[in-house]
Design goal:
It comes from Marinobacter guineae. Helices cover about 45% and strands about 20% of the residues. The protein is globular, with a radius of gyration of 22 Å. The structure holds adenosine-5'-triphosphate (ATP). Adenosine-5'-triphosphate binds next to helix 1.
């Protein structure tokens, strides 16, 4: 599906005027501070329920206002080779946040819904911005987040299992921190926690297998020399040749000393190695960035194989990638037939993004003082 109708109220400096987007490429340019990133941020807000830039909702609401709203109309997206969409809206999404009451209201097709996953399911948003680099250079938490985004879209029940597991972990941690360890109670938590962990692990492994196959196919196609010898491995968070219950039991003393759970899905990682060494120590920054982008595209391929269209938000790619890599990215995204938003300061040169002359259907927007004007 693709976001074709869009409107915000009190979202940073954005104008409340409604905008129609292309289900294919949307090229957005404007001066520093004009509102380009805010447009992507608002689209992301609708699909993720939060800003991809800042943690506090308060930073996002227009100065002096209490409530922000983002509305979106989705259509079927690209439906045939000519890149045409049928233009009928299939879903209407809305998110509204009162930053004083700290309340979020969500709507899908006019009905109030409680869970963010109801919105996220319809609008899978993948952000490629300067912060994306952390997937390779940052800690395991960033890579878990990366993988879990795809796991959620492959298996939507993952979100509720994940929440149950977080609750079991915190109960278990409380028991571990108790001065006098109640071994029988801990064994009860161990069993619950291990059962939920196994379900999380199974979902992650399933998605990782698909992701890895897509990534390897992509790398073969784009023929990036430096990816030869690159290995991607999934680590569950414990030695899965043993049951998690046994692992927990054999590390009781260690966990008791630390006062929290040390084994399980909260320790999972995607290990990226080049000739046996961590990629973060070996690859140049440019190579690491390109690697993350290829990984993001591979995720898009996994969803696309399931008939889901990802909305990619590419913030300021000129600052991140050279011309060749930008063209590679544009052609891969075009081949994926997903929806793409690209921002830049200068008016983008379509001939540079698609040097073969086969540009997809696109819309070009200029942003000034938070207002998008189609050219
Ligand atoms: N909560 C807010 N309320 C009103 N205006 C805001 C708020 N937060 C930020 N702004 C303003 O919104 C404008 C848009 O910022 P944004 O980061 O979207 O610009 P940009 O076009 O992406 O800029 P750059 O090219 O420098 O990255 C800025 O001028 C900023 O000062």
């Amino acid at each position: 599906m693709a976001l074709v109708k869009f409107q915000t109220e009190n979202f940073r400096n954005l104008s409340p005027a409604p905008v129609s987007f292309s289900p294919s490429f949307n090229l957005i340019y404007g001066e520093n501070g004009s509102g380009k990133t805010s447009v992507l941020e608002a689209i992301g807000y609708l699909g993720l329920g939060r800003s991809f830039r800042v943690n506090r909702h308060q930073a996002v609401v227009r100065h002096g206002e209490q409530r922000l709203t983002v509305f979106g109309g989705l259509d079927h997206g690209l439906t045939d080779d000519a890149g045409q969409s049928d233009n009928g809206l299939v879903h209407r999404l809305g998110i509204s946040r009162d930053v004083v009451q700290k309340e979020t209201a969500l709507r899908v097709d006019g009905e109030g819904v409680r869970s963010l996953s109801s919105l996220a399911m319809h609008l899978p948003v993948s952000v490629i911005d300067p912060g994306v680099f952390d997937v390779v250079a940052g800690g395991p938490g960033k890579r878990r987040q990366f993988l879990d985004w795809a796991v959620f879209h492959v298996e939507p029940s993952f979100a509720s299992v994940w929440q149950q597991c977080q609750r079991a972990t915190s109960q278990r941690n409380q028991t571990l921190r108790n001065g006098r360890l109640d071994e029988s109670l801990l064994r009860v938590w161990d069993r619950q926690y291990a059962a939920l962990s196994d379900r999380i692990n199974e979902a992650r492994v399933n998605t990782f297998v698909r992701f890895k196959a897509a990534f390897e196919a992509l790398v073969r196609e784009v023929e990036v020399q430096w990816t030869e010898g690159l290995k991607l491995e999934f680590y569950a968070g414990w030695d899965t040749t043993q049951s998690l219950v046994d692992v927990l039991l054999s590390h009781r003393e260690q966990e008791r000393k630390m006062g929290h759970t040390l084994y399980g899905p909260n320790r999972a990682d995607i290990r990226l190695k080049f000739q046996g060494r961590p990629v973060a120590e070996t690859f140049s920054r440019g190579q690491q960035k390109t690697l993350v982008i290829l990984m993001k595209i591979a995720q898009g391929m996994v969803l696309s194989d399931m008939g889901k269209q990802v909305t990619f938000l590419l913030d300021d790619i000129n600052a991140e990638l050279d011309e060749g890599h930008r063209a590679m990215l544009a052609s891969r995204l075009q081949a994926l037939r997903c929806q793409v938003f690209i921002t830049s300061i200068e008016r983008p040169l379509v001939g540079q993004l698609w040097p073969d002359g086969k540009a997809p259907e696109y819309r070009m927007f200029h942003v000034e003082h938070g207002k998008l004007t189609e050219e």
